[in-house]
Specification:
By secondary structure, the chain is of the alpha+beta class. The protein has helices at about 15-25, 25-30, 45-50, 75-90, 105-115, 120-125, 175-185, 190-195; strands at about 1-5, 10, 65-70, 95, 135-140, 155-160, 200-210, 230-235, 240-245, 250, 260-265. It contains 8 helices and 11 strands. Strands 3-4-11-8 form a 4-stranded mixed sheet, covered by helices on one side. Strands 5-6-7 form a 3-stranded antiparallel sheet. A two-stranded antiparallel ribbon has the order 1-2.
């Protein structure tokens, strides 16, 4: 589709997108090239770039719920269940601390993502793919070739493991813990969500946001909700994450050793539809 710019010159968005994608370099490639301007298809409309809370008369200071999981198998279990239920009903979004995953593993994960994306293009491009059947793929914006909206300033590497391919013995039990606590918070049997297959498919997506030469013109991620059952997010020290709550966008602070938990669209089904809400962020 051809678009006419304000200057009157023709702009072929599809060609620019295609040419960019064929470099297999992502936005990191733009940065590495020394470019001082970003491609036009990364530029977002002004209404997307403005402070979403501008003009709001709400003076309430909201804070994303933080659930301390320490003692969840003992005397604090009811307190924790109540906290998860309230946070899920009212926010669809909360943070967890004392979850059993060592800090060294969390830091190592973030460092591994950074190392991958900081590699030379020639090393990374062999993983570049838009084939969702590939268990490992590197890409820039999953819907880049089909979306008509502005692209996000981010690169990603994704790992898809379907139907329980990963050995649970090799991983901290956070997934099992959250599944059981959510089931019980809903008034269901502790194994209910696991038994209906909600926790069997694992997808790990690692986003990377390199410094942008024109940061005031683009976004790392646009408003969305997750189409999954549950998202466990390792935020790191990246600022800018916000969650929509009572018509206000609330900053999600980066807490040391915390995971961010997002109730996905899929959990809206069946009985949970009446209890839990999914969150836009």
């Amino acid at each position: 589709m051809e678009v006419i710019s304000e200057e009157g010159s023709s702009y072929d968005r599809a060609k620019e997108v295609k040419d960019f994608d064929e470099t297999k370099a992502g936005v990191k490639g733009i940065v590495d090239s020394g470019a001082v301007k970003i491609p036009k298809f990364f530029i977002h409309p002004l209404e997307n770039l403005q402070n979403p809370n501008a003009g709001s008369t709400n003076t309430v200071c909201f804070q994303v719920p933080v659930i301390d999981l320490e003692g969840f198998e003992g005397s604090r279990r009811k307190e924790i269940l109540d906290g998860i239920l309230v946070a899920s009903e009212t926010w669809g979004f909360f943070q967890v601390v004392n979850h059993g995953v060592p800090l060294c593993i969390m830091d190592g994960m973030l460092e591994g993502v950074r190392r991958f994306h900081d590699q030379p293009k020639d090393v990374k491009m062999e993983w570049y793919s838009r084939d969702y059947k590939q268990p490992v793929r590197y890409f820039c914006n999953g819907n880049l070739l089909v979306s008509k909206g502005a692209a996000n300033w981010s690169d990603s590497i994704a790992f898809d493991f379907h139907d329980g391919q990963l050995d649970p013995q090799n991983f901290p039990p956070l997934r099992k813990t959250l599944s059981e606590l959510l089931s019980e918070a809903l008034g269901l049997h502790v194994d209910y969500l696991a038994n209906i297959g909600c926790m069997e498919t694992e997808s790990l997506v690692c986003h990377y946001y390199p410094a942008c030469p024109e940061p005031d013109l683009t976004l790392g991620a646009t408003k969305h909700s997750d189409p999954s059952f549950l998202t466990i997010l390792l935020q790191g020290n990246i600022r800018g994450l916000r969650v929509l709550h009572q018509s206000n966008w609330v900053d999600v602070p980066s807490l040391p050793s915390a995971f961010v938990i997002n109730i996905g669209d899929f959990i809206q089904g069946q009985r949970s539809r009446q209890k839990l809400k999914h969150s836009s962020f």
